[in-house]
Amino acid sequence: MDESKVALVVGARGGIGSETARALARHGWRVRALARRAGTDAAFDWIEGDAMEGASIVRAADGAQIIVHAVNPPGYRGWARLVLPMIDNTIAAARASGARILLPGTIYNYGPDAWPVLRPESPQHPATRKGAIRVSLERRLELAAADGVRSAILRAGDFFGADAGNSWFSQALVTPGRPARAIGYPGRRGIGHAWAYLPDVAETFARIAAIEATLPAFARFHLEGHWDPDGTRMVGTIAAALGRPDLRVKPFPWLLLRLAAPFNETMRELIEMRAYWEHPVRLDNTALIQALGAEPRTPLADAVRATLAGLDVRPA
Predict the structure, then answer these.
(1) Which domains are assigned to the chain?
(2) What is the pLDDT of residue 255?
(3) Which burial class, exposed, middle or buried, applies to 260 when counting CB atoms under 10 A from its CB (0-12, 13-18, 19+)?
(4) Which of 174, 190, 249, 288 could form a disulfide with 221 if both were Cys (CB 3.0 to 4.6 A apart)?
C-alpha cells in the first residue's frame, strides 16, 4: 500500500462502492470507507458518516486524492430530495481537498434522440424524472470543473454481480436465496440490452484513478460491458450456469408494477425505465479504450456463475 495514495469511497457498503473500494485497495490505494455503519473489511479505514452531512464528507476527504461518489438512495426512493444535495457535499469536499471525484454514471440521462449508440458527448434529453436528475448532477460536476474541481464519470449499463444490491438481475431475472424455476426478463424479444459486471466496473475505476492526473478536468467514459444483442444471451447464460437449459423464460409483470405505482415510489421509478428494455441502447467505449488501452471484461459465463453463487440462486 502506498500511504501517499488515499481514496475516499462515499457509500462504501453499497454494491459499486464496496467493489470499487476493493479494487482500489488491490491497486495500492489506502481506502477510507464512509458509510452510515462501519463494515467488517479490515483492509479499509472505516468512517461512519452520512452523505447528507457536508461537514463529515469534507473531514473524511482531507488528504485524499480520489473521492468515489458511490452513494444513491436505496430502492430508488427519495431521488428528487437526496441526489443533488449529496453530490453538492462531495463537490465541496473535493474543492477543499483537491481530490478528483469519480462518479458511476448510468444511461438514464439519455433520451430517444441519443439512442441506439450512446457516446460520452451524446445529447442528454431524458424522458424520465430520474434521467433529469442525473443530467442536473452531471451538470454540477461540469460547472465545478470550470472552477477547479476535477471529476471523471464512468457510465455503464445495468449492473449485475454478487453485491449489486438493487439491480434488474436480482429483482427481475432471478430471486436471491430461492431455487430458480424460471428466469424473468423485462425486455422484448429481439431487443439488445447492455449489462455491466460490477467487478469490471470497479477495476475500470481503479485504472482511471491510476491515470487521473493525465485526464481533463471533466472527463467522461463509457463502459461497453456485456452486450446482449437480442435479449437471449444473458438468459441463456443463466440457464447454462444453473445446468438447466430448459428453464422457462417468463415475462416481467409490468402491469402489476403500474397498478402498484400510485402507492409505491420504487414501483414508479422502475416503470420509468421500461423504455430502456423496449429499445436497444448500447454504450460506445472508444474513449475508454483510448485512455486505458483495454476495457476490463470478465467472461460472461464466469461473471454470471459468480453472481448466482453470491445471490445463492440454485436450480430448482
Answers:
(1) 6-160+194-225+280-297 (3.40.50.720)
(2) 83
(3) middle
(4) 288
* Beta strands across the sheet bearing 100-105: 45-48, 30-35, 6-10, 66-69, 100-105, 151-155, 218-222
Q: What are phi and psi of 109, to 5 degrees?
A: -85, 5
Angle (CA) 149 15 13, round 5°: 80
Which of 197, 77, 72 shows the shortest CA–CA distance to 137? Answer: 72
pLDDT at 54: 94
pLDDT at 77: 67
Residue identified by cell 468515489 is 68
Residue 5 burial (CB count, 10 A): 17
Q: What pLDDT is attached to residue 76?
A: 63
Q: Which three cell numbers stand for residue 26?
A: 488491490
SS3 166: coil
Place of cell 500511504: 3
Here the cell at position 38 is 462501519
All residue ranges of the chain with pLDDT < 70 are: 1-2, 74-77, 79
Per-residue pLDDT at 2: 66
Q: Which amino acid is at 27?
A: H
